[in-house]
UniProtKB/TrEMBL annotation:
Gene: Trmt1l
The keyword Transit peptide is annotated on this UniProt entry: no
Coiled coil: none
Stretch list, region Disordered: 16-47
Pfam families from the UniProt entry: TRM (PF02005)
Lineage: Eukaryota, Metazoa, Chordata, Craniata, Vertebrata
InterPro entries: SAM-dependent_MTases_sf, Trm1, tRNA_met_Trm1_C, Znf_C2H2_type
Protein name: tRNA (guanine(27)-N(2))-dimethyltransferase
Localization per Swiss-Prot or TrEMBL: Nucleus, Nucleolus
């Protein structure tokens, strides 16, 4: 064996194997015994290691020198460089070479150093020719945990950090889970979950948990709680479980009203979900084949709830089974899962999806939005609502392909995500009605006025006529762009939002309550001071999705009977007769008050401005999309008119001139008496002094007199 090893070292072959047990023995033993131990144990493989480490991974610099000492010649080669790069030399020169070229640029991990390797174990690009480029491009690092070879030192450090974040912390080639001592326990809404230290870094951990999405989880919980009040029990699916925090909250608070299924395709995530279920004293139902081996945690009544945990692709489980409530929260866009989500979702069920690809939805990467959603968008003042309507349009088309229509119950676009909650209506007629609400938007790039394109397939000769503004006539070139296709219908359902607010109050979800109040006001297009919990009318008459839903004011009997087609047909017929009584939809889009403020003028406070618009006869409300946004049915011209009317000059000297008068409102009425006085005085001056001197004096004093008038 010793002869074979010496030949391999001479040829710098990578098959040389130095196990960890040998290195530890070398540190403790005498120097004269180390070469003998190395010769006898160099081909022994420890039972703890499936594969041995590369020769470039050592604990000390002396260990690299010992690899060169295996050659008995006076001149010794570098064990990590080929013969053509570094020729054999004396010991002092070899020591300097190993220290400066290999050891100083190494990457340290758990006492080991991953030195840079110049051997030909990494393939070189075929377009590089010559020995000089070959030796230069062949430099790389060998990972101590896996078999990867990485060129850059910074990339190697990041590669090792990703192993640590995934729990692969032992310096071996095997993939091991992190010990339980490295877990962190996070508590949210009375639910405990175990997460890894890097739980907030997506795509780098199996237990992704974002604390900033707490509001998103609370809104989804309220929507599920409202659905659970309509029919019991309901089967709900969290298609991307990660830590399982969302499904655990559903099962822990709603109890027997829901049958929760948590799915994830990652094996480590599924294992963590099971552990989190036991941490919260929940039963775990693995799958049909493993029902006999179900594990139970804890005792008492708390174990009456069972959570089913599955490990498969989200598209697969949604194709195989039917659910009443489906939530999609992948990393990025959800468009890849919409077809399978609407395939088997039950009638009058709910599909909610959270999209975190805000770079494309918020028009920072417009080509990505066109690729994922088939939608052309630009950055506008109402870009967040534009993102919500883009997602809903994709949802509508996916539902229509399955002969299903939708009604939007909730659409929220905040800093980190876009949340859309829709109710599914089965049948070709609802599908056609929903598809007709997907239209194009005409957007003026000068004044940012916007209007949805009219229905119909006929090409208009001048589409600029649909815009309320006249920028196309006063500005050169093309002034408007065509955006879409977008959802043109309502973004909120008032009755559903009110019941969500009641559920948020009942379960103590403090963060969701202010947002839900804003959404109710936005859905009704009213200000917050007119907000009431029970709504302006009788809540028993609120219509959702063509059927009547039980509300808190009902006398205990639900008008909605599920599973009976005749009852649903009767309810739909009654709803069609009373649709005229249904409240009008909120106006689409909003205006930013700062965007349209007048230079050199102090605009009024936002709440006062809302009152001014309301007094002018327009519907008005604030919007959650923009803290300084105003949702109103007033055209942009009237919006600017009211804003200018109640704005005050910025400078003190200009304030002495009085309030600002608009050309179209006040000065038009004052021109008539002023013109009459001018004619009378001109006639008198013409009679008294025909020389024109007095007329010249009047002309000089005319601006002062007009200002006084």
């Amino acid at each position: 064996d010793g002869v074979v090893v010496s030949e391999k070292v001479k040829s710098n072959n990578l098959d040389v194997k130095i196990p960890e047990s040998e290195l530890e023995a070398e540190e403790k033993g005498a120097e004269e015994e180390r070469p003998r131990e190395s010769d006898s144990n160099i081909l022994d493989v420890s039972s703890d290691y499936p594969r041995d480490k590369h020769i470039s991974i050592q604990r000390h610099l002396a260990d690299l020198e010992k690899l060169a000492d295996l050659r008995e010649d006076e001149k010794k080669p570098c064990p990590l460089c080929p013969e053509e790069k570094f020729k054999a030399c004396y010991s002092h020169k070899l020591h300097r070479h190993l220290q400066n070229l290999h050891w100083k640029v190494s990457v340290e991990f758990e006492g080991y150093r991953m030195c840079i390797c110049h051997l030909s174990c990494r393939p070189v690009k075929p377009n590089l020719v010559g020995d000089q480029t070959l030796s230069k491009m062949g430099a790389h690092y060998h990972c101590i945990i896996c078999s990867a070879t990485i060129v850059r030192r910074t990339d190697m450090i990041g590669h090792i950090n990703r192993h640590v974040n995934k729990g692969e912390t032992e310096s071996r080639f095997t993939t091991v889970r992190a010990p339980k001592s490295s877990y962190e326990v996070v508590k949210e809404s009375a639910t405990d979950v175990q997460v890894l230290p890097n739980h907030s870094t997506p795509q780098k951990t199996d237990s992704y948990f974002n604390p900033k999405m707490k509001l998103n989880r609370q809104l989804i919980f309220c929507a599920l709680a409202v659905l659970a009040g309509e029919r019991k029990p309901i089967e709900c699916l969290d298609a991307f479980g990660a830590t399982g925090i969302m499904g655990l909250q559903w099962a822990k608070h709603l109890r027997s009203s829901v049958k929760v299924t948590i799915n994830d395709c990652n094996e480590n995530s599924v294992t963590m979900i099971k552990e989190n279920c036991h941490l919260n004293k929940m039963k775990v139902k693995l799958n049909i084949k493993e029902e006999d081996n179900d594990e139970t945690g804890g005792d008492g009544e708390e174990n009456s709830d069972t959570i089913e945990v599955t490990q498969m692709d989200a598209n697969v489980i949604m194709h195989l089974r039917s659910f009443d409530f489906i939530h999609l929260d992948p990393f990025g866009t959800s468009v890849n899962y919409l077809d399978s989500a609407f395939r088997n979702v039950r009638n009058l069920g709910i599909v909610s999806l959270t999209s975190t690809d805000i770079s494309s939805l918020y028009a920072k990467a417009q080509h990505v939005a066109l690729r994922h959603y088939g939608c052309n968008i630009v950055r506008t003042e109402y870009y967040k609502e534009l993102a919500a309507r883009t997602v809903i349009a994709a949802v509508t088309r996916a539902a229509a392909r399955c002969n299903k229509g939708i009604e939007v119950l909730l659409a929220v676009a905040l800093e980190h995500f876009v949340l859309v909650v829709v109710r599914v209506l089965r049948g070709p007629t609802p599908a056609d009605d929903s598809a007709k609400k997907v239209r194009y938007l005409i957007h003026c790039q000068w004044c940012e006025e916007r209007v949805f394109q009219k229905e119909g397939n006929m090409v208009e000769e001048n589409p600029y006529q649909q815009l309320p503004c006249d920028c196309h006539g006063s500005m050169p070139g093309k002034t408007a762009v065509l955006l879409g296709p977008l959802w043109s219908g309502a973004l909120f359902n008032t009755g559903f939002l009110r019941r969500m607010l009641l559920e948020a109050v009942q379960y103590g979800l403090d963060e969701a309550q202010p947002l839900l109040k804003t959404l109710v006001c936005e859905a009704e297009c009213t200000t917050l001071k007119h907000f009431s919990t029970h709504g302006p009318g009788d809540e028993n008459k609120q219509e959702e999705c063509g059927v009547y839903i039980k509300t808190p004011n009902t006398s205990g009997e639900s008008y909605l009977v599920h599973g009976k087609r005749k009852s649903e047909e009767v309810l739909r017929g009654t709803a069609k007769r009373q649709r005229a009584e249904h409240s009008a939809e909120h106006p689409p889009f909003y205006y930013n008050i700062h965007r349209h403020s007048i230079k050199g003028m102090n605009m009024p406070k936002l709440n006062k401005f809302l009152n001014y618009l309301s007094e002018a006869g327009y519907r008005v409300s604030r919007t959650h999309f923009d803290p300084m946004g105003v949702r109103t049915n007033a055209p942009l011209v009237q919006f600017k008119t009211v804003l200018m009317k109640y704005s005050t000059p910025t400078y003190v000297g200009a304030q002495a001139e009085g309030p600002v008068h608009l050309p179209g409102e006040i000065q038009v009425g004052e021109e008539v008496p002023a013109a009459a006085e001018i004619k009378v005085e001109e006639a008198k001056l013409a009679e008294d002094d025909k020389s024109g001197v007095a007329a010249a004096a009047f002309t000089q004093s005319y601006p002062t007199r007009c200002a006084a008038d």
